[in-house]
Amino acid sequence: MTDSAIPMLEPGKRGEPGPKVPSWIRVRLTQGKNYTDLKELMRSQVLHTVCEEARCPNIYECWEARTATFLILGDICTRNCGFCAITTGRPTHLDRQEPMRVAASVKRMGLHHVVITSVTRDDLKDGGAEIFAATIDAIREEVPGCGIEVLTPDLLGNWEALAAIVRARPEIYNHNTETVPRLYPRVRPKARYPRTLELLARVKAQDPGMVTKSGIMVGLGETREEIHQVLVDLRAHEVDVLTVGQYLRPDLNHLPVVRYYEPEEFRSIRQEALDLGFLHAESGPLVRSSYHAASQVPQPAQHA
Questions:
Q1: Which domains does the chain show, CATH number per domain?
Q2: What is the pTM of this model?
Q3: Does 45 score more than 60 pLDDT?
């Protein structure tokens, strides 16, 4: 399908119906021993995962493979993005013991690569950067040699807070673009596209050896021309790794899918990204920013 065949649409409104889910989107539901063990571990350590809170379609596959993305800073987000299933509200507290529990769980799981993300905490002056840095430090102490990837909010442009996370030296710094700039007011209303690009550029400027990463969803009304421009912008800001996945509606309270991309379109976007110079690009209907994270990126040298 060419761009001329795709009208420039706004995302639908919450509560509106969307198109039927196509046959090529299938989620395998496997609740084996590893899935059960990991779920019990998370509950016993009073921890959250984005796999559960965001209703990720890959949770069964990833948990059965004993991989998970830890969600720190609680499970209540201060923002109300149109695509996200995480609970919105006013967080009640800041758990300073959380970094140690995450590190202990990483050790118990025997992970070689871990992804740490969080809800958005606009109620905190530093957006939660202190807890991000403490979590990285705790994992380094508990599991030396474990690769660490962080996926952070935009911190409302608090660049001192960003620097604190970068100084903790995760191997990979991920901040998702999510969608094209035209759709930001509906899809992620408190975010700003220029701020997202600046954050990624500042990470690379502070630590040129750190791998930077970003992801977008498709199916919310964007055009291929708009996707191309986002890819160009990300490369202009020296982003190394790209993930592209189909937006899947959590429920009727969220934005409907405008259309489902076909597998060949995802392959085309991946090739386009590689042609633009991304070191790695993952593009497919069920791709998420943390899906197969350890295998997406050629592992950089471990920080001392």
A1: 31-296 (3.20.20.70)
A2: 0.83
A3: no
